[in-house]
């Protein structure tokens, strides 16, 4: 018996690929093993299908919210991933800068600097 709703999983898979890139998502799922596969499936259904699948908030706004929250948590590998996704969802460099300013104000200047380092790394790859 599956731990998730198949339709929610498929909806989430579509949104996850649209935001993070199909290549990344497919590689992530392909690398899942007995330990991580149930989590990957549930996270795709719950986070991406249920959370991102609600049309009340558009994908660009969700990406901006994610950057703020993940930046506040200091999870920089995830922040880079979601920064790339945010750009795919239409978030501009100026908006990324403004989000980082808020992170620095509420979470501290060192965390803001970490976000700027990560943003520069991401922006350098998409500006080429």
Automatic annotation (TrEMBL):
GO terms for molecular function: peroxiredoxin activity. It holds the Pfam family CMD. SUPFAM superfamilies: AhpD-like (SSF69118). Residues 39-120 form the Carboxymuconolactone decarboxylase-like domain. This is Carboxymuconolactone decarboxylase family protein. It comes from Pseudosulfitobacter pseudonitzschiae.
């Amino acid at each position: 018996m599956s731990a998730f709703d198949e339709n929610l999983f498929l909806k989430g898979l579509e949104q996850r690929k649209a935001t993070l890139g199909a290549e990344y998502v497919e590689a992530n799922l392909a690398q899942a093993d007995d330990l991580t596969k149930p989590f990957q499936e549930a996270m795709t259904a719950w986070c991406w299908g249920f959370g991102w699948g609600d049309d009340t908030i558009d994908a660009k706004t969700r990406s901006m919210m994610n950057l703020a929250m993940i930046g506040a948590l200091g999870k920089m590998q995830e922040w880079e991933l979601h920064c790339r996704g945010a750009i795919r969802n239409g978030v501009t460099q100026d908006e990324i800068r403004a989000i980082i300013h808020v992170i620095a104000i509420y979470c501290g200047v060192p965390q803001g600097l970490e976000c700027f380092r990560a943003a520069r790394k991401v922006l350098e790859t998409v500006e080429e």
